[in-house]
Amino acid sequence: MTDNKKKAASSKEKALHHFHQDGIIDIIGGSVLVNFGFDILNNNETTSLFTWIPIILLSSIKNKVTIPRLGTKSLGGDEGQIKRWTFFPAAGMILALMAFGILILDDPLDLRNTFTLPFPGNPWNLFGSFILTAACFITGLLISLKRFYVYAAAALVSGLISYFFLPIYFPFFLTAGVMIAYGARLMITFMRAYPLDDERKNNEK
Questions:
Q1: CA-based, 20 to 30 A from 23: which of 67, 119, 127, 192?
Q2: Of 56, 64, 70, the residue nearest 17 (C-alpha)
Q3: Separation CA 33–CA 179 (nearest Å)
Q4: What's the domain range around 171?
Q5: Exposure class string for 152-164: b at 16+ Cβ within 10 A, else e
Q6: In the chain, where does DSSP find H-type helix?
Q7: Residue 120: exposure state from Cβ atoms within 10 A (0-12, 13-18, ≥19)
Q8: Residue 41 domain-assigned?
Q9: How many domains does the chain contain in total?
């Protein structure tokens, strides 16, 4: 790879990281996990409509909050690329939620009664937390956000705890709480660092 290509790749990665420092993806992801936790709690066989709604709102919130404050120029000026930066996380959430729904709620392969471990506890809790851990880890890997590794660790640790003591929805609620709390902190910091000027406020209205 030539120096120019390396610089372009580095610049693109920095812009992507900058684009996701608003905490929105964290809050949306956490909201999805909260709703999915309630799906488990209510013994739903499929994910409810409320579980999908936050994902649908991701693009519009980014367009309302993030892009007006940063501007397309600071993000590389490629509007198609910026749209992809929103589309791919949303698509990833959809795929993860489909996996959660099929493997945890519906369980067509009867995995719930397949997994056994030589320790007292509920293997199904561990299985659910492993799926959640993998989803968070892969997200961090694909969009270079190290905080998603922290979320993955929270999912894994809470899954190990729930294996012995707590129900399967505990890892989802705990991980969601960590994501929403940190996402809210990021959003507050972001909005203070990049306030809307009068012209952009009028455009937002």
A1: 127
A2: 70
A3: 9
A4: 15-204
A5: bebbbebbeebbe
A6: 3-19, 24-41, 49-61, 67-70, 79-100, 123-143, 147-164, 170-193, 198-204
A7: exposed
A8: yes
A9: 1
Residue 123 and residue 95 in contact, taking contact as beta carbons nearer than 8 Å: no
- Is residue 28 domain-resident? yes
- Say if CB 183 and CB 23 are below 8 A apart: yes
The number of angstroms, rounded, from the C-alpha of 195 to the middle of its chain's C-alpha atoms is 25
Tens of pLDDT, residues 106-148: 876 666 666 666 666 677 788 888 999 999 999 889 888 899 9
Does the residue 179 lie in any domain? yes
Q: Position 202: which residue type? A: N
Beta carbons of 31 and 200 less than 8 angstroms apart: no
pLDDT tens-digit series, residues 60-109 = 999 999 999 988 888 776 788 888 888 989 998 999 999 888 888 887 66
In a domain, residue 4? The reply is no
